[in-house]
Amino acid sequence: MPRSLLIYGLCIPVAILLGYLIATPFNTLSLVFVGLSLFVLSIPIFLRWHHALAIFTWNSYLVLFFLPGQPNLGIAAAAISLFISLVDRLMHRHEGFLRVPSVARSLLFLTLVVLVTAKLTGGIGGQVFGAESWGAKRYLGVLGAIVGYFALVSRPVPEDKARLYASIFVLSGVTAVVSDLAYAAGPRFYFLFTLFPATLAFSQALSEGDLLRLSGVCFAAVSVYQYLLMRYGIRGLCDWSRPWRLAAFAALFAASAFGGYRSSILLGLLILFVQFYLEALHKTKLLPIFLLAGALLAALLLGFSERLPLSFQRSLSFLPIKVDAAAKYDAQYTLDWRLEIWRIVTPEVPKYLLLGKGFAYSGTDYYLTQEAIKRGLYQSEEDALVSGNYHQGILTLIIPFGVWGLIGFGAFCCAALRVLSLNFRYGRESLKLINTFLLSSFVAHLIYYVLFYGQFDSDIISFTGWIALSITLNAGVRRKQVGEREDHTEAVPVHSTLVA
């Protein structure tokens, strides 16, 4: 009886206080207290399923609204998971973390470069803390990606749950669609933006005329068609006894064009080409079938491209087809804008080879630059130059962190490609399609990052996530067993290209 009274005596006042605070949700203190209360209540859940939650939320579009800067839920869950794993290992002194020294050393070196650069260039800063210098969120993106890697490799995924974990890892990106739906539903649903990033709805809000761009729909469609590609592979998608697979994939690939991003089509095609090669389909009768299908699709686009929605036409504007003048102008304007940024920034690279510029920049300078652009005194690319958003992968790495950052990232990519290739070649047969997709996706994104577009602080999260998932699913790095016969039909070309 006294124990029950004590429980009620503690719970009832807390419940009353939480009810009052929830009734005034726009008070900062209320949000912080409610968030902390929810966190305390969720501690048993984290202790039991922290590793699974880190994997499940890594690609999700959810933010922690009650924390400064509204960090991504995946990074926060990974940080909590890593802390619990470290404490568990210290207390029980058992082998926990899956050791892949080549990847770990490169990421630790990259961490050192980031921290030293931040120290020597004026600190991390942070708009949410009232600092005059901004850029802390970008540092958080890089450091959070590295923390996430070590959290995900803290233990192996049970063999019987590997496919489930990989599926949710990819499918969690479907949460992106909520932002578009909330904006389309009207102000009564804007409260959803406290949990889902409002930035995804910006392109929809800024759409003019018939050029409606739906970023959330695009990213959600990409997540689902990537799941189909991982689950069935290209060979499985082309199973004529199950035509719904190919139809669903084609519909989702087309739906990704609703965002109006050329990158969604380019990157999707790169993943398909790489996976087509890794599955050795270029040696089968599927090659002429795909070439014929591609020719028919090209003929249809040439004849009917101007009848497609404007967002579709914008996504396809890099192809030699006719598109509406409005879509073509919008796409060409952004391309010229980026080329001008690269033209201005490239001569500055030698200045930052030994000591990078870092991510921090003056909030005052950024505000004054934006005001000057509004008044026609500066060109539209000037604010991107101030903030360091150069829209090109290598530039967003070498200018902030110099040649040392480039060396660290290059070493990480080489180590990651070797691990992904070994797991692809020697991994369990039940994980063959998953390992194929992870290698294909990493290679395609790396090509796109280097040659076309990238932002280091956001793309590094994807790169570390893929390699960490591969390691935790395969319980480390798979190698050829003594006496094992190697299948040269699929593995040899990949090994000779990526590992040798």
Q: What can you see in these coordinates?
A:
Helices cover 65% and strands 1% of the residues. With 500 residues, it is an all-alpha fold. It folds into 2 domains: 2-41; 55-498, no CATH class. The chain has a two-stranded antiparallel ribbon. α3 crosses α4 and α18 (395-426) runs antiparallel to α19 (432-451). 39% of the residues are buried. Mean pLDDT is 83; it is low at 486-500.
Q: Which regions have little confidence, pLDDT < 50, spanning 5+ residues?
A: 486-500
Radius of gyration from CA coordinates: 24 Å
Estimate what percentage of residues fall within beta strands.
Answer: under 5%
How many helices? The count is 21
Record the SSE blueprint.
Layout: H1 2-23, H2 28-41, H3 43-57, H4 73-92, H5 101-120, E1 133-134, H6 136-152, H7 162-171, H8 177-185, H9 202-205, H10 215-237, H11 243-255, H12 262-278, H13 286-304, H14 310-315, H15 325-345, E2 361-362, H16 363-374, H17 382-387, H18 395-426, H19 432-451, H20 456-473, H21 491-498
Antiparallel strand pairs: 1-2
Helix pairs in contact: 3-4, 3-7, 4-6, 5-6, 5-18, 6-20, 7-10, 8-10, 10-11, 10-12, 10-19, 12-19, 18-19, 18-20, 18-21, 19-20
